[in-house]
Design brief:
about 180 residues, globular
């Protein structure tokens, strides 16, 4: 089924837009329920939605940029090539996990990214595109997102420095509008 669609088809059909952190995005859900500014512990000393969800599409020229979100995120695989995630944990450890369709090869169709975990990703397989979703709790607001300092994180996590630098280099080509098929 995914072979019948191009990434531009997905962008067009689902009205995805370029995003600073993860390729092309469309927010699909923001909870109408909210919490008060004093209801949750730090770093959520603000009011906000209980949960949120979005679609995201990653291409070779619109990758997952090195970033972190305060909130726990659950990635979901839908269509396309597998995505190898590099998670940089606060304790100094790193983790590589593939989100994709091949369960026999150890791919996951869902992946929890703990809050405050810097992460980036690259396409595997034929490297055409990855289409998935993320659900977050509490719901993400702009102040929950932080772009990573590449040099600082490469020094702090030398085991994955070449990979995160290579992915970061491709970010310079992120389009500001949908790219041709």
């Amino acid at each position: 089924m995914s072979d019948a669609l191009s990434y531009q088809d997905i962008i067009d059909l689902l009205a995805l837009e370029p995003n600073a952190t993860c390729g092309f995005v469309r927010i699909t859900y923001t909870s109408k329920l909210s919490f008060a500014a004093d209801a949750l512990p730090a770093p959520f000393a603000r009011s906000g939605p209980v949960g949120s969800a979005l679609y995201f599409l990653v291409t070779p020229h619109a990758p997952v940029r090195l970033h972190r979100i305060r909130n726990d995120q659950l990635y979901h695989y839908y269509l396309g090539d597998p995505l190898e995630l590099f998670m940089l944990h606060n304790d100094g450890s790193t983790e590589r996990i593939v989100v994709g369709p091949d369960l026999r090869a150890g791919h996951r169709v869902q992946l929890l990214i703990p809050g405050d975990t810097f992460h980036t990703a690259r396409l595997l397989g034929s490297g055409r595109w990855f289409f998935g979703a993320s659900t977050e709790w509490p719901g993400v607001t702009p102040q929950d997102v932080e772009i990573g300092d590449l040099d600082q994180l490469a020094t702090q996590y030398p085991g994955v420095a070449p990979e995160i630098r290579a992915i970061a280099a491709s970010v310079r080509e992120v389009p500001t509008a949908p790219v041709p098929r």
